[in-house]
Amino acid sequence: MGCGFAKSDQLKKRDRETSLLVPAATAMRAALLIQRWYRQYVARLEMRRRCTWNIFQSIEYAGEQDQIKLYNFFGYLMDHFTPASSERNLISHIFRENNICHNVDWERYFCYKSIEVPELYSGPHLSFPITCSNAAELVEAFKNKQQLHSRYVLQLLGETWRLLRILPNISQISTCHNKEITICGDLHGHLEDLLLVFYKNGLPSSEKPYVFNGDFVDRGKDSLEILLILFSFLLVYPNDVHLNRGNHEDHIVNLRYGFTKEVLGKYRLHGKKILKLLQKIFSWLPLATVIDHKVLVLHGGISDTTDLHLISRVDRHKYVSALRPPKRKRQNRSGMTDSDLEDDDPTAKSVDSSRRRVHSLTHSSSTGTRHEVQRRSLQGLNNRVTCSVEEELKERRRQAGLSQSYGDLRNSLTNSDSDPDPDSGELLESYGDEWKQIVDMLWSDPMPQDGCVPNEVRGGGCYWGPDVTEEVLRRHNLTLLIRSHECKQEGYEFCHNRRVLTIFSASNYYEVGSNRGAYIRMGPDLVPHFIQYQANRATRALTLRQSVGRTERSALRALREKLFAHKSDLISSFQEYDPENTGLISLGHWAGAMEAVLRLGLPWRVLRSQLVGDTLDGMLDYHLWFRELAITEPNTELSNASLLETMYKHHSNLETIFRIIDTDNSGLISFEEFRQTWKLLSSHLQTEISDEAISDLAVSIDFNKDGSIDINEFMEAFRLVGGDLLQNEGDPH
Amino acid sequence: MAEDKESAEAIVSEVHKKIRAAFDVFDHEFNKTVDVREIGTIIRSLGCFPNEGELHDAIAEIEEEEPTGYIRFEKFLPTMTKVLMERKFRPIPEDLMLQAFEVLDKQKKGHLELEELTKYMTQEGEPFTQEEMEEMLSAAMDPDKNLIFYKDFVSMMTVDDPR
C-alpha cells in the first residue's frame, strides 16, 4: 500500500528533524497508531466483502444448477414415460417447437393491427420504419416510467424478428474511419444502468456503434424495457448496433428468473403473445461478434472444441433454448430406449471446499447412443436462402462431413409440424456437436488452471483454462476474447494473461453497493478502455463500510433463508456429531456439517462470527441457534412441517414447474394441475409426498378463483419474513 | 499433564483451522497459494494489528527464496500460528485510540480539521496513500463541516467489530 517501513531508528531520526507544534515524537506515534488501526479495519472489511461475494455467487450458481437439474429431469421423463402419461403431457409442450412453423403464420401471429391504442394512452407512439428520434423518445419515456402500448410492442417485435432473421450467426464489424466501439456486458433488467451508460456515452448511432453482449433480461425489473430500447436502436442502426445472445435469452431460464413473470405482469392481455414472440426472437439473436477480425465478443466463453467456422454455419434458430438437447431419434426397430441418458448423479467429490457438482448438460448427451425422437416442428427455411433447397442441403451435408441420407436432412429442415419421424435413421452427430458449441458459448466460465472441464457449478458449458484460450485464439487468428456472464466487483476483469476480458454492466447486481458496472470503449488500436459507474446515486455516497455492511446483510439474509430451508437436514447432521444428544456441538463440527449439507463451498469458519452468536466454551447450542436465526415461518397455516420445508426448499423449482404447466401463461393453474405439479416435484426429488398431504395443503390455501390457484399469490405465501426488513418487490432474490 | 498437552494440541488445531479458513478465502485457484498482496488482509483479518513495517518483515519470512508473487500455505501456516499463539501484533484498545486522536487535537476542540488530519495521515508515520486517505475521510468526516469528530469515529469503528 505504498508506505515506508517504520523501523525504530528511522523514528528517532525523524523525531529529531521534525518540528511540529505537537511534540514530534508524540505526533508520530499517534499517527502510526491511527494508521495501524485503520488499516486493520479496512482489511477486515475486505475479508467480509470477499465472503459476501462468495455467498452471493454460490447461491446464484447453485440456483442455475438447480434449474438445469430440473430440466434434465424433465428430459428424462420425456424419454422414459409412455406418451399417454399425464406427467409427460404436462411438460411435453416445452420440448416442442412452436406449432406455428410457416413464416406466413408467424406474420399473422405477430399481427398487431387489431389492437387499438386508446385516446387516453399517454405513453410513446411509435411509427415504422422507426426513426432515431423515435428511439430516443422511447428511452425518455421509459426513464419517466411510462409503458409502451402492446400494439407498438408487437409491431416492434415483428420488425425486429424480420431483421434478425437476415443477420449472420457471427457479426463482423470494424473500427474503420476511427470509429470507437462501445461494448456492454450483462444488464439483467437494470434499466438504470443502461440509462447511465447512454448518459455517459451517448445514444447508439452510426458514429457511435455498440455491442450488447447478452443477458439483457431476468432478475432486474425492467427487462422488457431494455429489450425494447435495444431492439429499436437495432432497427434504426442495423449496421451499428449488435446484440449477442446470452444464456438468459432463453424462455426456460426466464420461467425461473423473473422475465416471464415481469411480462405477464405488465401486459395482462397480450403478455402471452409477447412472450411467445420473444421466444422466437431470442433464438434468432446472433451468437457472437468479431471486431476487425481480431477481437471476439460473445456472452459466456469457449471450450477446447470451439470452432467459429462451424458456428457460423449452424441454424441458430433451431436452438430455442440452449438447455434443449439436440434432435434425438427413437430406435424403433430394436425397441431400445436409452436408459443411461441421465448422468444425474449428484456426487459431491469433496475437495476442501466442495465445488464439484452435477454433470453438465454438455456431457449428458453423448453421441453414439440412441435417444427418443423429439417432436419438433421447425420453421421453414429462412428467406435468406437464395439457392434451392436441394443445393442448400447438399452444402450442409458436405460441410457437416457426414454421409446422411437426404431424407434425414430434409425431414429436419423442411416444415413438418406433426408427428415424430419414424425410423429416420442414425443420430445426427452434427446436431450434437453444434449444440455443444452453442451451450459452451453461452454458459462457460474461465478458470485459472489449464485444461477444459465441465462447468459443474452452473450445470452447463465448461470451465476453460489459459491454454485453451491461447489455442482457440491462435486457431482463429484472434488477439482478444471479450465475454460477460460473471459479475465482477469492478465491472470488468482480465484473466488468462490479459487475453480474456470479462465485462459486466449491471451495477449493484447482488445488492445496492455490491459492485460497479462498466463498459468498454475500443478504437482501431483495439485497446480496451473502461468506464465504470454505479447506478444508484445513494451508493456513490456510501462509504466502504456502509456498502460492505449493506451487501453483507443482504447476503446473510439470503444465506439464512437457505439454512432455514435445510433445517431438518442440518439438525440431523448436527446430531451425528452429538451422539449423546447434549444439544451442543463444537464450532469445528458446526462448520463441517454446514458444508456437508449445503454444499455451497463457503468459508464457514470465517462466516461464523456473522452467523453464530454466543457459544459456551466454543460449543454451540444448535437448537437455540436455529431459533435465534429469527426466521419466521412462511405465512401459511400448514400443519405438516416437513411438507412446508420441502416446499420452501424447492420453491424455485415449484414456481418453474407451475409456470411450465401454465401453458396459456394466465398465471392460474387448476387444482388438478396443482396436484400434478406436486407429483412431478416429488418424483424429481425422489421423495414421497402423499396425496393426503397435498389435499391438506389445498385445504389450507384459499381457492377463491373457481378452483384455480394464482401462481403469484401462492408463491407470495412462501416468502419468508426475516428479522430484517422484507425484501423489496422486484428484488430478484 | 497429559490433559494439558491434549488441550494444548486442541488449541493449536483450532488455530490451524482458523488460519486455513482465512487463507482459503483468497485462494482463488484452490491450489493452496495466495497472491502476496493479500497476505496483509489475511493476517489482519485474523485479528492482528501489525504496522506496515512488521507486515513487511512477516512477508519476508514467509516468501520463497526467490519470490514468486505467491505465498504457499505450507510456509504461511507455521509463521502465522506463531503470531497467533504468541499474540503478536495485539489489538489497540479503544481508549488508546482516543488518546492518539486527542494528541493530534492540540487545541482540544473535540474534533480535527480536514487539513490537519490529512497532513498527519499522509506525511507522518507510515503515510496513507491518497486512496486510503479518501476512504478514511468518507467514513470519518462530516461532509458539511469538513470536520472529523474522532470520538464518534472511534466508537463507530469499534462497535463494528463482530468478534
UniProtKB/TrEMBL annotation, chain A:
<keyword id="KW-0904">Protein phosphatase</keyword>
<dbReference type="InterPro" id="IPR012008">
    <property type="entry name" value="Ser/Thr-Pase_EF-hand_contain"/>
</dbReference>
<dbReference type="GO" id="GO:0004722">
    <property type="term" value="F:protein serine/threonine phosphatase activity"/>
</dbReference>
<keyword id="KW-0106">Calcium</keyword>
<dbReference type="Pfam" id="PF08321">
    <property type="entry name" value="PPP5"/>
</dbReference>
<dbReference type="Pfam" id="PF00149">
    <property type="entry name" value="Metallophos"/>
</dbReference>
<keyword id="KW-0464">Manganese</keyword>
<keyword id="KW-0677">Repeat</keyword>
<keyword id="KW-0460">Magnesium</keyword>
<feature type="region of interest" description="Disordered">
    <location>
        <begin position="396"/>
        <end position="428"/>
    </location>
</feature>
<keyword id="KW-0479">Metal-binding</keyword>
<dbReference type="InterPro" id="IPR013235">
    <property type="entry name" value="PPP_dom"/>
</dbReference>
<dbReference type="InterPro" id="IPR051134">
    <property type="entry name" value="PPP_phosphatase"/>
</dbReference>
<feature type="compositionally biased region" description="Polar residues">
    <location>
        <begin position="401"/>
        <end position="417"/>
    </location>
</feature>
<feature type="domain" description="EF-hand">
    <location>
        <begin position="649"/>
        <end position="684"/>
    </location>
</feature>
<dbReference type="InterPro" id="IPR018247">
    <property type="entry name" value="EF_Hand_1_Ca_BS"/>
</dbReference>
<dbReference type="InterPro" id="IPR011992">
    <property type="entry name" value="EF-hand-dom_pair"/>
</dbReference>
<dbReference type="GO" id="GO:0050906">
    <property type="term" value="P:detection of stimulus involved in sensory perception"/>
</dbReference>
<dbReference type="InterPro" id="IPR004843">
    <property type="entry name" value="Calcineurin-like_PHP"/>
</dbReference>
<dbReference type="GO" id="GO:0005506">
    <property type="term" value="F:iron ion binding"/>
</dbReference>
<comment type="similarity">
    <text>Belongs to the PPP phosphatase family.</text>
</comment>
<dbReference type="GO" id="GO:0051879">
    <property type="term" value="F:Hsp90 protein binding"/>
</dbReference>
Automatic annotation (TrEMBL), chain B:
<feature type="domain" description="EF-hand">
    <location>
        <begin position="92"/>
        <end position="127"/>
    </location>
</feature>
<feature type="domain" description="EF-hand">
    <location>
        <begin position="14"/>
        <end position="49"/>
    </location>
</feature>
<protein>
    <submittedName>
        <fullName>Dynein regulatory complex protein 8</fullName>
    </submittedName>
</protein>
<dbReference type="InterPro" id="IPR002048">
    <property type="entry name" value="EF_hand_dom"/>
</dbReference>
<dbReference type="InterPro" id="IPR011992">
    <property type="entry name" value="EF-hand-dom_pair"/>
</dbReference>
<dbReference type="Pfam" id="PF13499">
    <property type="entry name" value="EF-hand_7"/>
</dbReference>
<dbReference type="GO" id="GO:0005509">
    <property type="term" value="F:calcium ion binding"/>
</dbReference>
